[in-house]
Design goal:
Serine Threonine Protein Phosphatase 5, Tetratricopeptide repeat; five-stranded parallel beta sheet; DNA Cyclobutane Dipyrimidine Photolyase, subunit A, domain 3; mainly alpha
Length: 486
């Protein structure tokens, strides 16, 4: 590592954000090409800025991802300097101390990140400091894809077709093998002092049994998925008891792996994997792109109805019902299993996410924003664009949204996608002895069946907080009134 005292070349500041990787990191690649010594930093910006981890579960993921990045940089002879505070103030201090004349970073596309980065670029330019930003967090920059009329896309299918017409994304860049680093005059903050990990209680104690954060783990998971789970993906991905999805979303959320690397690794797989499976998986990556397209052009997506007709909807927002939903005690097994998986693993199967979201919004008539906020806090893969777009899709208030009258029956959904009850039994052990016929409808089971399974409704497992048939009729009447009053 080079010392400032002996090096005449002015260093470049490399600012890591939601790109905690060496592979396919365009800002890092550009810094290495300059041949200047590099100061690698990660800034813990004020949470009020909305640029760090979205919630407590993702803070756990961030801690371990930063540890992994520190180790990777250490193997190259460098270090990751951890500092806290306002990004512009800290960058100005670093520039004054080091003599750096350039700051490099990879772009953020969430509204808060865009606003901060725009302000920083302008302020640095006024000081004669060059700030360069690079793509790589998405397959394509969201400003590039517009309709023939020059407007943003409002529906997914035309967006997907336009994405296809752009052709293959740029090839991912391999990680550097040699990097010239430089010491900082000030001391890096210890990661442990950031207190990103829960302690008392350690509600994330099971996370480590499910997840291995870090770049190496992300690439292992990608390889394993492409080799073993991509075939049959379209058919198997909706079954929550099977490991049939990629499980890459937490790595994507903090940029531990790039979407271009994932896309690239699936090339050529159609020789042994049905095209339908490959396309279906790539469409999941494209939904992420579409979500960022929406939030880029409609920055208020996480907070406001995209379709303002829903502004007049009469939400009930019952606090007891919301609490039952968060704790997984609604009396509907597939809903409760999903919410308990979320708490225990910081994750929930995508099909189940749609079921629990529909139940909250349409059975309980609780504003989708309450659910979106809870998911932000509890998901390791929390993403400002995906989270908001998906919740608005279910709520019928978003772009290309599911029709509001599409209301999932939680019992039928459970029976269709978890027919033998394996998923429910894993997360609701008190129902483990109930036979398949009643595993998704314990409220219909005869007293003798419940007794033989050691279940007492209302005691060992709750009765339904609401009758689904009643709830369905109620919400449709409310929706019809909203439409009539529009």
């Amino acid at each position: 590592m080079i010392s400032l005292a002996t090096e005449n070349a002015r260093p470049v500041i490399l600012w890591f954000r939601k790109d905690l990787r060496l592979d396919d990191n365009r800002a890092l690649h550009a810094a290495c090409k300059l041949g200047r010594p590099i100061i690698a930093i990660y800034i813990r910006e004020p949470r009020s800025d909305g640029t760090g981890p979205l919630g407590a579960a993702q803070a756990w993921w961030l801690h371990h991802s930063l540890e992994s990045l520190e180790m990777a940089l250490g193997k190259l002879g460098g270090r990751l300097h951890l500092i806290s505070g306002d990004a512009l103030d800290l960058l100005c201090d670093l520039i004054d101390d080091s003599g750096a004349e350039m700051v490099l970073w990879n772009r953020r596309y969430d509204p808060a990140g865009i606003a901060i980065d725009t302000r920083i670029k302008r302020a640095l330019a006024e000081q004669g400091i060059e700030a360069k930003s690079f793509s790589g967090q998405l397959l394509h920059d969201p400003s590039r894809l517009m309709t023939g009329a020059g407007t943003p896309y409002r529906t997914y299918t035309p967006f997907w077709r336009a994405l296809e017409k752009l052709g293959e994304p740029d090839d991912p860049l391999d990680p550097p093998t040699k990097v010239k680093f430089i010491d900082l005059p000030q001391k890096s903050e210890p990661l442990a002092e950031w207190r990103l990990l829960p302690t008392k209680p350690d509600w994330a104690s099971e996370f480590k049994d499910i997840w291995v954060p870090g770049e190496e783990a992300a690439h292992r998971r990608l390889t394993d998925f492409v080799e073993n789970d991509l075939q049959g993906y379209r058919r198997n991905r909706d079954q929550p008891s099977r490991r049939a999805t990629s499980l890459l979303s937490p790595y994507l959320a903090l940029g531990v792996i790039s979407p271009a690397r994932i896309w690239c690794e699936t090339r050529g797989s159609s020789k042994r994997v049905p095209v339908a499976d490959l396309v279906h998986f790539r469409k999941e990556l494209a939904w992420r792109e579409f979500s960022y397209h929406l939030i880029y052009h409609f920055p208020e997506l996480p907070n406001r109805n995209w379709n303002d007709r829903m502004d007049a909807f009469p939400w009930q927002n019952d606090k007891k019902h919301f609490s039952a939903w968060t704790k997984g005690v609604t009396g509907y097994p597939i809903v409760d299993a999903g919410m308990r998986q979320l708490w225990r693993h910081g994750f929930m199967h995508n099909r189940v996410r749609m079921i629990v979201a529909s139940f909250l919004v349409k059975d309980l008539m609780i504003d989708w924003r309450h659910g979106e906020t809870w998911f932000r806090e509890t998901l390791v893969d929390a993403d400002p664009a995906n989270n908001a777009a998906s919740w608005q899709w279910v709520a019928g208030s978003g772009a290309d949204a599911s029709p509001f009258f599409r209301i999932f029956n939680p019992t039928l959904q459970g029976e269709k996608f978890d027919p033998d009850g394996s998923y429910v039994r894993e997360f609701i052990p008190e129902l483990a002895n109930l036979d398949n016929k009643y595993i998704h409808r314990p409220f219909d089971a005869p007293a003798s069946v419940l007794a033989s399974a050691a279940i007492k409704l209302g005691t060992t497992y709750p009765e339904p907080v609401v009758d689904h048939a009643f709830a369905r009729d109620r919400v449709l009447v409310a929706y019809a009134a909203t439409k009539d009053g529009a």
